[in-house]
# Entry
Amino acid sequence: MEITVEDLLDKYKTMVKIRRFEEKVSELFAKGKIPGFLHLSIGQEAVPAGMRNVVKKGDYLISTHRAHGHMIAWGLDLSKMFAELFGKETGYNRGRGGSMHICDPNSGALFASAIVGAGTVIATGSGLSAKLRKTDQVTICFMGDGATEEGTFHEGLNLAAIWKLPVVFVVENNMYAISMCVKNAMLCEKISDRAKAYGMPGITVDGNDVLAVHKAFKDAVKRARDGGGPTLIECLTYRHHGHWEGDPDYTAEVYRKREEVQEWLKRDPIKIFEIKLKEMGVLNQQIIEKIEKEIQVEIEEAVKYAERSPLPDPEKIIEDVFSTTDGV
Amino acid sequence: MEITVEDLLDKYKTMVKIRRFEEKVSELFAKGKIPGFLHLSIGQEAVPAGMRNVVKKGDYLISTHRAHGHMIAWGLDLSKMFAELFGKETGYNRGRGGSMHICDPNSGALFASAIVGAGTVIATGSGLSAKLRKTDQVTICFMGDGATEEGTFHEGLNLAAIWKLPVVFVVENNMYAISMCVKNAMLCEKISDRAKAYGMPGITVDGNDVLAVHKAFKDAVKRARDGGGPTLIECLTYRHHGHWEGDPDYTAEVYRKREEVQEWLKRDPIKIFEIKLKEMGVLNQQIIEKIEKEIQVEIEEAVKYAERSPLPDPEKIIEDVFSTTDGV
Amino acid sequence: MGYDMKEITMRDAIREALWEEMERDPNVFLIGEDIGTLGNIFGITTNFIKKFGKERVRDTPLSESAIIGCAIGAAMTGMRPVAEIMYMDFMGCCFDTICNQAAKIRFMSGGKVSVPMVIRTNCGAGFQAAAQHSQSWEAIFMHVPGIKIAIPSTPYDAKGLLKTAIRGDDPVLFLEHKMLYFTKGFIPDEEYLIPFGKADVKREGKDVTIVATLAVIPKAIRAADILAKEGIDAEVIDPRTLVPLDKQTIINSVKKTGRVVIVTEENKRGASSAEIASIIAEEAWNWLKAPIKRIGAPNTPVPFSPPLENYYIPNEEKIINAVKEILST
Amino acid sequence: MGYDMKEITMRDAIREALWEEMERDPNVFLIGEDIGTLGNIFGITTNFIKKFGKERVRDTPLSESAIIGCAIGAAMTGMRPVAEIMYMDFMGCCFDTICNQAAKIRFMSGGKVSVPMVIRTNCGAGFQAAAQHSQSWEAIFMHVPGIKIAIPSTPYDAKGLLKTAIRGDDPVLFLEHKMLYFTKGFIPDEEYLIPFGKADVKREGKDVTIVATLAVIPKAIRAADILAKEGIDAEVIDPRTLVPLDKQTIINSVKKTGRVVIVTEENKRGASSAEIASIIAEEAWNWLKAPIKRIGAPNTPVPFSPPLENYYIPNEEKIINAVKEILST
Ligand SMILES: Cc1ncc(C[n+]2csc(CCOP(=O)(O)OP(=O)(O)O)c2C)c(N)n1
Ligand SMILES: Cc1ncc(C[n+]2csc(CCOP(=O)(O)OP(=O)(O)O)c2C)c(N)n1
Ligand SMILES: [Mg+2]
Ligand SMILES: [Mg+2]
# Structure
């Protein structure tokens, strides 16, 4: 696979940025500074990073409750992300959405739904829209393994397939939907096998290997852009934290065995990529420190921005229901 | 395949009975004697007939808007069926249901839903119930090709598969969901291919060959009864009438080509079976006439019964919402 | 109205609105089951596929969530989809997609994205189509913030409201009562639009206010005509849109008459009539001369058998009796 | 009550009801997401799987329609399933299965089959869980004939109502407001059941009636206590079940006080408070001394940010102001 050094380093940076961002989020949540429900993607960073430099301006993104990584990889600004997490008026969703719904329609990051499976059917629409308007825009639709059990998955993938819509469905298979292990939730061997029911290409890749993910994205996006229709990409990965911050499993191993967690911690996608990049001579300790430093500064400033930002004005919530306040 | 002469004749009679029943229904509808929406299964009789002498007392049936054939094959009484079509108090549903909902929970014919796809998820429940109560009851769940496009199909089949429920899902693929040809509604070659997504055995049979259908039922019911879990059976067939009585396609060929219809009329399941039975020496013109005569009498008496029956009392409808009238 | 007029059915008025809007704006497209080749089960979109092609008149598989989801995604990215759900009853199959996605996306994004889409569907009983093909669920969607609701009772209103719905920037639920498809009315030859949130006084009167919706409107007018013969002068108000609701026209009428009967075909408990009654009880109480009276269907699923269904559906007689009852208080 | 009492949380009261009913009747089983190994996200069913085994405490895939459909089929064939939908908001994903199947099967069969099932779910805002994890949709299900609705506000009510729900022969929607899970109350050690359709007067008073539901009950009681200091004696009524609704207790109270405020956490338009207000306007109008007053959330999705969410949720202050307003009429 051809890939430039810039691209490699960009992916590495993206992964570290997602990791540090979420570590900070976890820390601020523990301190009671961030309200609401938080789902972190620590351990899964290779998947969104694999998308970097494959999508381009004009493309669309549809995401889930576990979206921080997708949004950072899409290029969203950490300041406005923190501001949203803090419930501030300067946040991406002006405090209306919070962690589960951060999005930025202006840059194509259309929506993050916390209804599992809801995104698949919506992605058919941005896909169809591009087709009808005869553009080459591609829609990336992320979901978890659990989402593939919802009826909307079936309806969305089937529609995208029969209409050859330019959509890439990406399943981040972290093996669990909260406590439900995917092995107990389906009998087919791989989630990507399900693509066959829709006559759609399906592929399973090591989701902790950013370059494998990248390759899969590249092929699928190319197919979509060229009018070849949708693809289902399954990325095998693992979340290091609990399902949500506060999930008892994180410390008490309610549904995941210690050995399993240990095994996956060893396969940390950032560590793996770091070693590979060092071997390739692209990365060294000095560059790492520089990257870490830059990210640390970016995060600190973003948090400061968020902290200093004003809270939204409650009386204004009726303004966002419709395009005018008539009928609210 | 071993099959007794009685069974062969029973299947033949069942098919003729369904045909004559529905021809009568069509005639009475045209005369304005039957109100509401009617979906006839003329041309598809081999599918329910194939089920005869495979299911046994205690088994369950879940059906659809096109259920007359299923119900007759299940053993329902034509008098109470006509009474229901006429909206009479003596009908199976006491006039509350009509054609789309005729059922007889007392004999295990639990429910006929006119929401396409709704039955698949309910069938998992009667399946689970049998499993929990440790009986060998099997649930037969009929649906059309269109139903396989609904999200409930996906959720129902997946659940039945992972829990190894004793359910047989039978798709009557008559190639159309109203005007939508199944070839335009999915890209996989056969509907039974979709079973793979659930790790469930799937089979496609000639739905106009009652013995092929019978064999598929026998295998699937045996598997279910023996604890082997669910099966998806796809029966390729064709409806001779329009989607509903009144469908312009029936005369004007809006969505089905004349040649296609002609082709399928030649493959009439009753005709095919008749020829085969004659070849086998099981049937002759005399027996046919006797069967036709018996059925004619049965239908005439059933219609008379229905005509003479009283209409329901409107004030009583509030009695059937809950187990008592509190809170209606 | 100063225009040349023609008499057409509600069905044709809806056809015209769709046809004209598709001609006017290339971003408008149709999506739904059996709307293309078949041209809709009631013939609403007959020949649309010939005129506009199958890219813009999209027959879908039986996947209601996908129909609505596809409309949402298209609406968010510059298109103006008009989705059809064949019967309102089937909106249960895409309820999440409508109520948790379409209706909330603008708000959840902080007002940063619009979802300009219309969902057309037919509602109501009268065809002996039984419990799963006859419902009136408007109160349900009225309760969910983020979706506007049009409830035309005449061809004129249907055409004008549908055009407004298609041109607006918000999700709209456009309800077509199946028993009204073949009722006739006059509409102008010229183009016209009807704004949302403006009730129409279908008949003026001073003794009692009758607020009614959809297929009840013609019945309410007939009831008023009968009452007129007995010297009772009823005003009939058609809200035309439930969201936004023109509270003022209703309240003004009640202030004038002091008496009100609200009639809809919905199951009475929790019907849209409850919201309207509550508004009156909160904001026009001082002018009321008698208890508010509500008429709805009994709280049962829609029954199949003709005598049962007739009993279920509110009619002229019930309206007349209710009016007389509150006039005698 | 003459029993020995103990103080427990609402969560534990619900646990106890489920545990005891599962011990009592082998046909009772649980089905839902994350109820087994995890024991429910709020710990409602912790250790149930150890006690009752995974056959009777069934973790499902993320398939809400299948959860409800499976419960229906089991209920029709002799079992008594208690299904859990993790958040009420997700009932949109199985709306058809609940409203067109579970709620209608008895009626559509002509009364020939029962569907004895309970759907437990949590509703309500207060956790900054935003628009898709905080809703109160009781009015929606109240409108659909065929499903009973329990809305407990105390541990005592929760336990007694849940047992009645499980033993009944009809589909029941059992609502648990997430902000009440850790509120405490006394319940007897002895077994008890609470019938559906019996409101509870949570506080007696003579000047004004406050009808409230779920998490608003404790607020209404606090508001009444504050008003008492100013010499205003408010009666607080908790309907406890919305279907059946105990109209009589509400009407009797209004006849006594002549003034009523109805407060629920739902979006105000089309809320259950509208139905209650309408009943009063229809049946107790003669006794009213002031307009009916309703309080609900604004007609917006539930916002995330704490000050927005606080503004959204009805509170003591709004109740007090409303009472004072109608007392000054
Ligand atoms: C329709 C629906 N059902 C259930 C939930 C509750 N829930 C939130 S996330 C989640 C697990 C999702 O699993 P998966 O799709 O694998 O994504 P992951 O959380 O593992 O990233 C569940 C059950 C929900 N939000 N929406
Ligand atoms: C959820 C839902 N969507 C749409 C319909 C309208 N409808 C009734 S039957 C039908 C076609 C069903 O096709 P199929 O499943 O193939 O069964 P067939 O009618 O061919 O026997 C449609 C679209 C419905 N009843 N329910
Ligand atoms: Mg997962
Ligand atoms: Mg078909």
Summary: Chain C touches chain D through 54 residues (CB under 8 Å). The mean pLDDT of chain C is 97. Residues B 144-146, 174, 176-177 surround magnesium ion (ligand 4) (CB under 6 Å).
